[in-house]
Amino acid sequence: MAAAAKRTLRIGLIPGDGIGLEVIPAARQVLEAVAPHFNLSFSFVDLEAGWATFEKTGAALPEVTVERLQGECDGALFGAISSPSTKVAGYSSPIVALRKRLSLYANIRPVKSVTPTTTSATTAPRPAVDMVIVRENTEDLYVKEEKTYDTPQGPVAEAIKRISAYASTRIGRMALDLAAARHRQRASGIGPTSIHSPDAATLTITHKSNVLSQTDGLFRESVRAVYDADRTGGPALYKHVKIEEQIVDSMVYRLFRDPSTLDVIVAPNLYGDILSDGAAALVGSLGLVPSANVGDGFVIGEPCHGSAPDIQGLGVANPVAAVRSAALMLEFMGLEGAAGKVYEAVDAGLAEGQVLSPDLGGKATTKEVVDDILKRLA
């Protein structure tokens, strides 16, 4: 019988600014290393976006980058952006624009602690964490519709917060599907161990509808409607998912006070952004936390950290978030086996705690961390 043909995937690489230029090549190395284990091969398309691109070309997201992603690529990896903190004429965030242009309506951010397996591990003990934050990616205050006007008391600035039933229903379904999948994985005993019960998964809707009754109220009601329709005559996709709610300010308290109780969280854009950065502190560093911008036909892996200009060029950036983002990209492309092998290699290194970057209390360089992952993949 003839051997199965090797599957070739074309991946767009957008390093962006700062340490994105260092961690995206690291993620590429890991993809190339895992490919032979699963009869895969990767080809890569080098693309530009970011502040340096804006300074060079006048466009933070060149049209050719979008066209090549849409026309040539099966998925992509995005590094980091050095966005200015003050208004610059003609500049807007390229990753926000990409999410809208490619309809990447969900930002998926898994946050999981790894327990050291040796007493010599340099990582400090961390709380038990195994959660996924599902952030709506296209609306809320990130529609970036602002204005400033004068009044007798001085200037007033206003921003539009937009929430639609369409986008909220769509992200609610994504979050519920993810919760149901996590239950199936835990119930089967296949895959990584979890701190959560195998009997059910829990989805926590995060909002502030006690104050923002129309916008956050619509988000809350839309997510609940997906769940209620399934339970009252639907296909029973979510029969093993429990649903709960949490006001966003009390959610911040719970996140730090009792993170082990949180499983899947769904939130509007701004709350999801804030909660996921806070959750990163629970596991030690933003340099550990991956994300994926997911739509119905495309995915872009993106580490949660920023461009970190203070360590750019020093060779000490933590590549783990970018590597895990590459694995998350593979997972949403249907390549769970390849993704799992990458996760296992990364987690084994973190558990041993011998090759850690400075943000985790170690002294390893970016190259040394990558080499350790590659050795484990081999």
Q: How many domain modules?
A: 2
Sheet/helix structural class? alpha/beta
Number of strand elements? 12
How far is the first residue's CA from the last residue's CA? 27 Å
> Element order, helices and strands?
EHEHHEHEEEEHEHEHEHEEHHH
- Mean model confidence by pLDDT: 92
The count of helical stretches stands at 11
> Taking Cα atoms only, what radius of gyration do you get, to the nearest Å?
21 Å
Biggest beta sheet summary = 10 strands, mixed
CATH topology of the largest domain: Isopropylmalate Dehydrogenase
> CATH superfamily of the largest domain, please?
Isopropylmalate Dehydrogenase
Question: Strand order across the biggest sheet?
Answer: 2-1-3-12-11-4-5-10-8-9
CATH top level of the largest domain? Alpha Beta
Low-pLDDT stretches are none
